């Protein structure tokens, strides 16, 4: 190896390390930018109402402004927050389970049964992702009332329709990368279609299943517009709907309890994301191949 070659390789390696260092600093700064709003919500949820309104919201709690869990207790008891939490949990769990089950079977069918019908179904599902919700929300509200889909126990059917586009796209892309030989071997052993799907295909879909579940959970859990349009707000209030009631007359907002309830709302999603984050990139990349 010549000296020129060694010098060139060393220069390339040094430039690569410099680029990596710059990217590390930029990504760390970006992470701080994303985390900082959550940090602000946390510190303000521990402050007294007067401290938030009269001093800077960016200051840390002091001995005079610190109220501990007072805002959390007040926010939970005032708006019957636990009831709203249960409604949001029911809606999220039923919707995500229904989306994962139906869309994974749909993606498997589209991939394994090619034809005009399958292709048209796939295109319709993908097209639904680009249709703005505002175009259909008034018609949807009337349809939901007519079909009695206006309770937390059956609104999952509506979420299935809106969440199917992304889910079918990801499951179809992943299934295109899975060899069909495994399914053919199971068919030779006497398995029917349902047995092949639930015993062979379903376990293979785990990475895409988890990443899709996280994305759909964050959407359904934080959704405000659809439950407001469909549900009877006098009977059922999800967490985003309940938080809005901290706004009083004449523009008055109870910032402390609102921040506390927002923190309670964000915490389950953060915990879920931390436990499942390793599957997100894997599932998204797997769902994008050959698709």
Figure out the total of helices: 13
What summary fits the major beta sheet?
A: none
* Count of the separate structural domains: 2
Order of helices and strands: HHHHHHHHHHHHH
Radius of gyration: 25 Å
Give me a quick take on this structure.
By secondary structure, the protein is mostly helical. It has two domains: 3-44; 70-288, Orthogonal Bundle (MetI-like fold), CATH 1.10.3720. The protein is built from 13 helices and no strands.
What are the salient characteristics of this protein?
2 domains; 13 helices; 291 residues; 0% strand; MetI-like fold
How would you summarize the topology of this molecule?
Layout (H helix, E strand, L loop, with lengths): L2 H42 L4 H6 L15 H9 L2 H32 L3 H12 L9 H10 L9 H20 L5 H8 L4 H12 L1 H17 L2 H6 L8 H5 L11 H34 L3
Helix pairs in contact: 1-13, 3-13, 4-5, 4-7, 4-10, 5-7, 7-10, 7-13, 8-9, 10-13
Walk me through the structure:
The protein has 291 residues and is mainly α. The chain folds into two domains: 3-44; 70-288, Orthogonal Bundle (MetI-like fold). It is 73% helix and 0% strand. The chain contains 13 helices and no strands. α4 runs antiparallel to α5 and α4 (81-112) runs parallel beside α7 (156-175). It is globular and about 75 Å long.
